[in-house]
Amino acid sequence: MVYLTRKAEFSASHFYHNPEFTPEENKRIFGKCNNPHGHGHNYTLEVTVKGQVDQRSGFVVDLKELKEIMNREVIEAVDHRFLNKEVAEFHERIPTTENLAITIWTWLKPKLNVAQLHRIRVYETPDLFVDYYGEA
User: How many other C-beta atoms can be found within 10 angstroms of the C-beta atom of residue 78?
Assistant: First the structure.
């Protein structure tokens, strides 16, 4: 089994708010991230796939094809977007880094034919990242 990781970067803004919380709870739990005008991040996305090396091509997956899938299914959907308002999955789901990783998994998993999706890693800052390995 060979694991292969491809990186991409995108910028997006968001805010954290749970309508079931009181304004005080939202402020206490989410702090500055509860600002309805949002704030932004420069994210790094790592998509790791796994599979056997094809004896004819020498690839686990064609890197150009993987890049095209990542751009089409993820980057075009989130880059320079206000996640809460412009991405349907976050109209009612808080766009935390954790939820972003899970959402990206659901977008990519059905699009990968040759290699199997192994991990989604989303960096919100250089020292904060979330790993998601799909449902157990």
Answer: 23
